[in-house]
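Box 3.1. Reading complex inputs
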Amino acid sequence: MDSSAWGMLMQGAWTTAWISATSIAIGVVLGLLVALVRLARIPVVHQVLGLYISIARATPLVTLVLFIFLTAPTMGIHLNRNVAGILALTLNTTAFNAEIWRSAFNNFSKEQREAAMAIGMTPWIYFRRIMLPQITITSLPGLVNEMSFLIKGSPAIAVIGIVDLTRVTNRISAVTYDPLPPILAAAVIYMGIISLLVWLQRIAERKANRLAV
Amino acid sequence: MHEPATSETTMVSVAETADTSVVAAAVSIRGVSKSFDGTEVLRDVSMEVAPGEVVSILGSSGSGKSTLLRCINWLETPDRGEIHIAGDRIGMSDTGKPMSRRELAGMRSRLGMVFQSFNLWPHLSVLRNVTEAPIHVQGCSKAEAGERAMALLEKVGMAHKCDAFPYTLSGGQKQRVAIARALAMQPKVMLFDEPTSALDPELVGEVLAVIKDLSKEGYTMVIVTHEMEFARAVSDQVVFLDKGIIIEKSPPEEFFVTPKTDRVRRFLELEAPTA
Amino acid sequence: MSNWEILWDSRGVFLNGFYTTLQLFGMSAVLAFLAGCGIVFLLEGSRPRLRVPLRIFIDGMRMLPFLILAYLLYYGLPSTGIRLSAWQAGMIALVSYHGAYFAEILRGCRLTLPAGQVEAAIAQGFSMPGMYLRIVLPQLVLSARALIGNQLIILLKDTAFLVIITVRELTAAANSLSSTYFIPMEAFIVVIGFYWLISIGLEQGIKIIGRFGAKRGFNNA
């Protein structure tokens, strides 16, 4: 592999990184919102979100990316490939994140609420200052784990022609006629990204465990 | 064997029977030592258990008594020494090499072991816990193993629970099933490793009663226990282990009434002031 | 003719894709599960000989995207002279990738199994394979059932990646129908419905094992 091949590979890695990071950022926040709305148990909305989570968790990312990218034009929406990719990854990861957030809320001890009310906190201050910080810490290991899954699922966006870290290996081998080196190099880069996340997850677990004691 | 031998073959077999009955203790421990991480737990321990004999091993915690018991069926590998079960060496083949797993499994199936923490298999019913090894280790038919198991469960008073799963049982019930499970292999020797230590006080009696019944039926048993009254009642011999050394071995009346050493006297005062 | 009628007329394409997906899923699920059980068996005992290579295999797989493994087998291997069909490459990728995940799930569960249970089996004269098969493995499956169910759903979804290396499975069927007749919405709704149904079926299956486990005192892990 020459320097131009490495350059292409790095570009592919960058594409994977920014698309995944954008989807993760939106997905974490949106997941929290979905979890909160579900906790409110508003009729119909609750069921609709439940159905969304169930379907999104069962739908392969490849299928979802294709569905979004091919269907949008039939409804008169013209989606850029990258936007379609981000949309699919976000829809997928939000569903998983919502369940992670929800279980953290369900496992939160109710006694702290009484203590907060007793010293005159409003429900909003209680949520913002007491509940959310703790729930973020307990959810973090699960959320980081889901980030690894998103990275591992991200090559799905290659199916609509986004040149990510996986697809770029096809491009490189079209020039060099030797697909093995770029694929191995891409594999090593993926391993680097994921082991970074695994390392972060371990730190998050240590923090969460300290909170549990 | 009162009839005079009429053929050579009979004579040979009589001779052999006579020969082994003289030589083979049910369990023979010779010069066994064992260390964990540099700490000597057993030091050159030797003892014999005759067929049909009930031997209790006493000693304060950390004296090495459980380790000794676990060496008998090679759950722990002694650093030095030999152990023979009914004349056959366990753990090492005659040539001095470690036994293959298969040979070791064969030897172990001649020993029944009852653990402090019962160790029933939670995914199997009470009956299946008892029949699992006879069927899959000894190759018994299901019908035969089932019949034998029901008889044993009857003996330990657990036949009515044969279809229950372990998690529904009390500790005493679990231990009685564990005893039936060990007996199902028709072992030559039964080993008990503090069988009542994990039980609530009110459940101890039912388990000890079962073991007492077994002692009357002529089973060879080695029992590690803290129950002094019980040891006195069932044992033919009491062995006292201190810091990995046997410092007394005597019949219970002698052991509990006129102990030979100060160490045992102090132990008895602490553990069984009334005895 | 409405879009749905077009779909109905070309149901053969769906059914073929559905059949291929089910076949890939069913075969690889069984083989990957057996591979996971086999790996955990090889890790039994105090000093397993293959500990280091198996650890590297498991951790390596867990750090790779599934598609890059499929790429490696389908596009990469021909460089070394080994040429696999897309279906073969996909199958091998599914089995080795998810075999590693199943192994990790069962291994984690194995660590929490009380040592005394295995000791009791050894004391009763069980051989290593007999002990593993009759005492250890059933308990691992009962207590790890939820994680195993999750992994099966991930495996099912990973079969869709194989469309990228040209396997004609369910997502490929939707893709080709939608480009032939330009009815992407309907085609993909049907396909997503298929995936959803299989997932629900899997979850129900796990629930049945759950009842079986609850009867034995195995609560949700």
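In summary: Chain A has a mean pLDDT of 92.
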